[in-house]
Amino acid sequence: MITAADRKAGAGNEMARLLTGNGKSVPEPSSRLDIKQGPYKRLVIRGATVIDGTGAPPIGPMDIVVEQDRIVEVRTVGHPGLAINPGSRPEPGEHEIDAEGMYVLPGFVDAHAHIGFPQQGKHGPLAPADYIYKLWLAHGVTTIREVGSMNGLEWTLAQRAQSAAGEIAAPGIEAYALFPLSDAIALTPEEARTWVHDVAEAGACGIKFLATHPDTMKAALETAQEVGLRTCCHHSQMSVARMNVLHTASWGLNSMEHWYGLPEALFDDRTVQDYPAGYNYQNEQDRFAEAGRLWMQAAEPGSARWNEVMERLLELDFSIVPTFGIYEASRDEMRARRQDWHDEYTWPSVWQFYQPNRNAHGSFWFYWTTQHENDWRRNYQRWMQFISEYKNRGGRVCAGSDSGFIYNLYGFGFIRELELLQEAGFHPLEAIRAATLRSAELLGLEHEVGTVERGKRADLVIVPENPLENTKSLYGTGAIRLNDESRTAERVGGVCWTIRGGIVHDARQMLADVRQMVANAR
Fold first, then answer.
1. CB 223 within 8 A of CB 216
2. Weakest-pLDDT range from 3-12, 168-177, 375-384, 482-491
3. Do residues 261 and 244 touch, judged by C-beta distance below 8 A?
4. How would you classify residue 139: left for phi > 0, otherwise alpha for psi between -120 and 50, otherwise beta?
5. Taking each helix axis from N to C terminus, what angle separates 129-138 and 507-521, rounded to the nearest 10 degrees?
6. Which residues contact 355 (CB under 8 A, 6 or more apart)?
């Protein structure tokens, strides 16, 4: 029998685990900046074409002036194809970047990120934080929403503070605490309220939910709104039969992660997913195989139920972070396994974590079949149709990668998410907006980051190729293009510089650092 004292002790243990990670392996903390370039009293970026993150078309040439960590001027200085009149330009800077022929975008905001995962430590030394941060920065990611802080909230908040102070080369970190998952002692509504107050006092920015009792979740969401914490939820199959996204959104949830909870809200001829008799949620292949058949059990596009659910979520100003990329291997495992970057950029224990393993989350390739992949392809079609229509009707869709699982690598996985948003029907400008302004809005940071505008923090990405023409050019490995003069294929693109809070990071040097780190680890 579980007594009140047991419950109190259990809640205390959950808080201790949350704060410290309970002694689990955590990534080595990030080192101090290798070479600190800025912030400068005056940094001027010259002659770039700007894609500002609002959805507006490119414009240039433009000069951007940064003082310390702020954008202080964004000035049009001429017209394409004509020489720039020096008299039209801002005054010289302490440091200047010649970006003529290049493109400047707002720093990307990865709305669903993890700084490693403790379970990867079973397969060898964990990837250090430096490795993960450099991959993100090398792909233009200047802010992340760390959903869960699974290395311990204290550790994540310490990294956040160092990043904010410019002491380490890392994106800005929004730290979300993971709501207790203990099977033995689930929190009561009153305990949940206390827990939310505790994590707010500890310094968390928000809370991530998975599975809990509806009354407990309702109490936690109400309290989170009272204390100003943002919330997100992966609607686990272990609780979704009692509360789908319509319930949680109406209780004040800010965003849903992935898509769990949404097809269930769209059921019109059933109330429970069509689980086979032999299904077991602890069997990862069961879990992901049946997830790939779920959207085809939901209401048809354009049906009364489809519209009813969409209109309710729009009314609630609800945000969706689909993370298309994290499930892509389910529809083409071989492609995901053989992506260009794995050979040189994937950390050994991360690679081992990706391999078939009955005791590792997301490593479900026990015998993945052609039929599984076909099911998932159909799943994507329906899922993408809902997301695109939600965006078209004014809904907020954000870009998140959930990298570190299922062959999805930090940085590279975020760029792939932009490609998949376009597959869903987004214009490239809409995909970039999802990755910048829309994700900044989700985090409540739209007045600070997300667009290239005067007064905002100088989080910027400078790239040599037009990302609207080919998003693949944003990959650290670049895009393949035929050189008609040499008649050979060459790789073009990649980020040149990522500017985070006025500090200039050489993206190509960061990638070289990562390659060396991986080679040494092997």
1. no
2. 3-12
3. yes
4. alpha
5. 150
6. 363, 365
* Amino acid occupying residue 45: I
Domain for residue 451, yes or no? no
- What type of residue sits at position 412? F
The two tokens of residue 69 are: 């960590």
Nearest Cα residue to 425 out of 398, 455, 447, 392: 392
Domain around 372: 107-443
What's the one-letter identity of residue 118?
P
- Residue 209 to residue 190: CA distance in whole angstroms: 17
The answer to which of 16-30, 76-90, 180-194 has the lowest mean pLDDT is 16-30
Rounded Cα gap, residues 413 and 113, in angstroms:
10
168 located within any domain = yes
CATH number of the domain within which 439 lies: 3.20.20.140
Task: Indicate whether 22 pLDDT > 60.
Answer: no
Six-digit token pair at 271? 């109330």
| Residue 73 within a domain | no
The pLDDT of residue 21 is 62
Total number of domains in the chain = 1
105-125 pLDDT, tens digit per residue, is: 999 999 999 999 888 888 889
Beta bridge partner(s), residue 176: 147, 206
